[in-house]
From TrEMBL:
Example of a GO cellular component annotation carried by this entry: chromosome
Keywords: Membrane, Transmembrane, Transmembrane helix
InterPro entries: Spo11/TopoVI_A_sf
Gene Ontology MF terms in the entry: DNA binding
Name this protein carries in UniProt: Uncharacterized protein
Superkingdom of the source species: Bacteria
SUPFAM superfamilies in alphabetical order: DNA topoisomerase IV, alpha subunit (SSF56726)
Annotated transmembrane regions: 93-111
Amino acid sequence: MICPSCERFLKGYNTQCSCGYKFIFRAKTEPFNDNKMKKLEIKASAFNTRYFTKNMLYSVFLKTSAKSLIAPIIFVVIFCGIFSAILIGALSYIGLIIATLLFVVAIKLVIKSNKPMSIEDFSDYYRRWVNAKRNNSYLVDKPKLKKPPANNQETDIFDYGADRIVVVDDPLFVDCLILNEEHMRSKALIVSQDGYPHYLKDQFKNLLEQAENMPVVLLHGTNQNKINMVQAIERNFNVKLADTQVYDLGYYEEQIKQAKSLYKRMRITKCTVDMLPYPLSTQLISKDKSQLQDMLVLGAAAATASYVSFSLADDFG
Ligand SMILES: [Zn+2]
């Protein structure tokens, strides 16, 4: 194993490196080691250039831990083939039955071994890492925008005009997007459905009143949907949204199942808003008005699903 502090290679499994670094994970019995976690964080932060959430880190973990099943399946087929030839030779029909059963069990085990670690288990491991203060400084773990940021970048948006409102279902993701300056890049007012951050409530209302049909783009995980989000927005921001201005670019389980490339990467169909590859979210929210219009005409769900398939042909970090 490698010490994440001095990067020295250590023989066997240790609890402490000679440089003084104390390991958080017991690499011998746990599926993690400290160096691996450090590297995951570096990837999630795009080499320390971008803020990330725990769910975004999990998404990177899912991708790095996905293995191809082709080699193990070929191995099982050859091994079971030879084994069944011997069994059938020795036991005839009974041999064939035993061989078939063995084959089914082996294939099931191979598929099971590729099942990803759950977000709950991953969170438990990561909590230990964060509690020991080993986490990367780009981690966003608490919503902090109760007050406007000191340099008040939100006012800058209004200097060149926000041309859309982006509403997400998780306040933490608002922090992450704003820290990464996605509001500047996509000229968007970014808020969460529960009225966070509070200091942007008036701007939300003003923007809606200033421009007719101001696009309101929704981004959400699979446990949310358009109807619930619109209701929450209208209640928490005290506004009324027209159906034609709402662009639901949120994630639905059926879409993930249909978007093969995405499912292959994730191996899960339920996800939170920040669990999908980060650049996908930001590309969705920064689409120009005509593209948003296309999505509305096509049906946002279908358009998003095909968009997801296309965009993931590229490798997302
Ligand atoms: Zn060390």
